[in-house]
Input
Amino acid sequence: MNPILDNQGVLRVGGRLEQPTFATFDMKHPVILPKGHAVTDKLILYYHEKFGHANRETVCNELRQRFHIPKLRWAIQQAVKSCVWCRVNRCLPQTPMMAPLPVQRITPQLRPFSSVGVDYLGPVEVVVNRQWEKRGIALFT
Output
């Protein structure tokens, strides 16, 4: 990395980008920050929130314009995992595990519908077109 100290005593990345006039001093010599430090983590969360809880590459590109952080993508991933807004708004529902099959379904030489149950319930009053009507319910199992 060839680190250098600037006029304020900040550790920066040295390099061969001395000649371009279009690049700022921060772009030529980004500040070196340690991974896993509290200030580094707060800075990553600030950029993550500043760009609207953006994806990892957007935050990585914006941070690399001014800072050099080792293992930056991993640090951003850890910051996104701790972001409450992202955890709430980007969660995906998990499908529940199916129950085990009953004995009747896996017993060999047992024909379908060999045991059927019928339950009848009623009368039950329901509203149809603002009028109460009586209905019956049949449940086949």
